């Protein structure tokens, strides 16, 4: 057995329990937020984070030695970005580069819809990182192609890099990277054609997916077919148990018939809709961060101890209208001010006792972003 422990704060690694049997199994999982054991079947053993690991990059082999449990961990692939730097960056989408070599070549891609970046998504990234460089592969343009009504994201686009960077201590000291594929380019692919694209075009070494993952045209393929096809194309496939939500019965009866109590983006949206921020924090594994962006047409209104912003400035999904105590106004990497937030039909109001001059911060012409983190309160 190989063990490793950790948490976000200590930058050590979580408890893991690896067992290899015939067939190969992996024990690791959650029931809500409490660790428990379950069996996970693979076509081949899952490599732990330490020891030599060959990463295929283009047509070359490069041996990387990583350790997630050593006393002196290697330098992370990415650092947690500064608050306002990360907000001002455009989304770092990974694409196929001009020389024909995919930027995910040799990596392990987690497959799914990563809107919320919740603890279930984090679990996929954790498993990917144990086998190689971790990537989150998702599709863009689905709403437009399928005619869905647009809706605000749970995590603001400009804030996703920060969230993924916060997973570094879970993911073998690596920051998972995102790779987006246009949905229109894969919509009509059969399950076999999709796996072939992963293998021959993107040149990934392996995939990680949840037990309920469906893929291919009209979602014809399931997890078992994914394992079979990956074996045919010489790739590793890791299927993991869903992270279950132990508190769902107390708060939400999900309207999605495909859900059987697992943590999901739908549950996060429903928890935000009822204003239960303690529940939202459990599902996300962090506090929900709301970000508003001022424009030339819509500016923040600043008083001595209050900042107000129209809802048209929202970059991501806000909780229901109401009063929220124990929130934090983020004025910079080292400057976090306690506040309370009032959300009404048209505005988000942030009230605080801060005497440092809110008008100097949020009234300046170059002040674009208003980041707020919600404490574990309930409206």
From TrEMBL:
GO terms for biological process: FAD biosynthetic process; riboflavin biosynthetic process. Residues 106-255 form the FAD synthetase domain. Keywords: ATP-binding, FAD, Flavoprotein, FMN, Nucleotide-binding, Nucleotidyltransferase, Transferase. CDD domains: FAD_synthetase_N. Its EC number is 2.7.7.2. InterPro entries: FAD_synthase, Rossmann-like_a/b/a_fold. One of its GO terms (molecular function) is ATP binding. Transmembrane segments: none annotated. The keyword Nucleotidyltransferase applies. One of its GO terms (cellular component) is chloroplast. Pathway: Cofactor biosynthesis; FAD biosynthesis; FAD from FMN: step 1/1. The keyword rRNA-binding does not apply. It is an enzyme of class 2 (transferase). This is FAD synthase. It comes from Arachis hypogaea.
